[in-house]
Design brief:
Helix content: 40-55%
CATH class of the largest domain: Alpha Beta
Strand content: 5-15%
CATH architecture of the largest domain: 3-Layer(aba) Sandwich
Number of domains: 2
CATH superfamily of the largest domain: Flavodoxin domain
Distance between the termini: 29 Å
Radius of gyration: 20 Å
Strand order of the largest sheet: 2-1-3-6-7
Bound molecules: flavin mononucleotide
Length: 315
């Protein structure tokens, strides 16, 4: 196939982190001859507050996990036809963020995605497995074809980011905290700069790719890294979010007083669970690791698809 390949890049970013990541990936595509990039920022109709007010932050979880997002401005979404969609999204409560979900649910978004090869690009703290499961299901229902998934996360230890990410979201202060004991929240500038390699790989292959090719373009580049210790915790937490989210939605709209009382109880329960269940399950997992090796390897391969964890071709 000859002719210009048209790439649509969509995404939302509150702090600018995901925009920087997307721009790093898009750089080589914008520089490539024969590729035309259209970038469309997803824009919530009502701007999300930053930093997040405490209650508003937690009260966002029921609708996030039940994929009932606050709306975006659909009029900014283009009408045209694209050869590839790069869909950048962040995770909110183990689900695609509300603006990303609003794109998936919008008539124009669905039309842009239907039948197209899609590269998902995630920038989040470190828990993205369940969100991507949701994304895969939604893309499949639309008829979109996921060809690559690229994920960048905060490289600090989970115990640190458990403090630094909410601190960043709720105060706007990115850190470092406690005199440098807890590193600054977010994806490192170096990791963002190196994400250019994905753009290079796509720019190299896209011009000569057949339109019905579903094979990944970013294998061998370390596109994802699976933290196997988080698999069970994510499953458990996602189930808990779905259950409690359904209950809270039955109690009223976001902000309803009776909903807030139960939400307060749930936040206490949730923090207690995270501080107990996650470390305990991590210890148990380490103890039984020799017996579960094969199953865990299968799970890793499943969650790492389609781009995979391997980085053997990295330059
Ligand atoms: C409401 C909310 C919920 C979040 N939940 C998660 C989560 O479940 N897992 C995760 O890894 N990161 C989570 N994050 C962090 C985001 O994925 C993301 O890293 C952060 O919001 C910065 O993104 P942005 O500034 O580019 O929008 C959450 C952030 C917000 C605001």
């Amino acid at each position: 196939m000859t002719g210009v390949k048209r790439v649509l890049a969509v995404g939302y970013s509150q702090t600018g982190q995901l925009t920087q990541l997307l721009n790093s990936v898009l750089g080589p595509l914008q520089a490539a001859e024969g590729i035309e990039v259209t970038t469309v920022p997803l824009t919530p109709l009502k701007e999300e507050p930053f930093p997040w007010p405490f209650w508003y932050f937690f009260d966002t979880f029921p609708e996030s996990v039940h994929l009932d997002p606050r709306p975006i401005d659909e009029s900014v979404l283009p009408e045209g036809d694209f050869d590839l969609v790069i869909f950048a999204y962040q995770v909110w409560f183990l689900s695609p963020s509300m603006p990303a979900t609003a794109f998936l649910k919008s008539a124009r978004g669905r039309r842009l995605l239907a039948g197209k090869p899609v590269v998902t690009l995630i920038g989040c703290r470190n828990m993205w497995l369940m969100a991507q499961e949701t994304m895969k299901r939604e893309l499949e229902a639309i008829g979109a074809r996921l060809v690559d998934n690229i994920v960048l996360t905060d490289s600090a230890h989970s115990a640190f980011t458990f403090v630094s990410t909410p601190a960043w979201m709720l105060t706007g202060n990115r850190g470092p905290f406690l005199g440098g004991l807890i590193p600054a929240a977010g994806i490192s500038a170096d990791d963002i700069a190196q994400a250019e390699r994905f753009g290079r790989a796509i720019a190299q292959q896209l011009p000569t790719r057949s339109p019905d090719d579903d094979s990944p373009m970013c294998t061998g580049l370390g596109a994802v890294k699976i933290n196997e210790r988080l698999i069970a915790s994510e499953r458990f937490a996602h189930r808990s979010f779905r259950l409690w989210g359904a209950l809270l939605r039955r109690l009223g709209r976001p902000g309803a007083p009776q909903r807030r009382i139960v939400l307060g109880l749930y936040v206490v329960f949730l923090v207690t669970m995270i501080l107990t269940v996650i470390p305990i399950s991590a210890v148990i997992k380490r103890l039984i690791a020799p017996f579960t090796r094969e199953r865990v390897m299968r799970q890793r391969a499943y969650f790492a698809a389609p781009s995979g964890e391997s980085a053997e071709l990295k330059d």
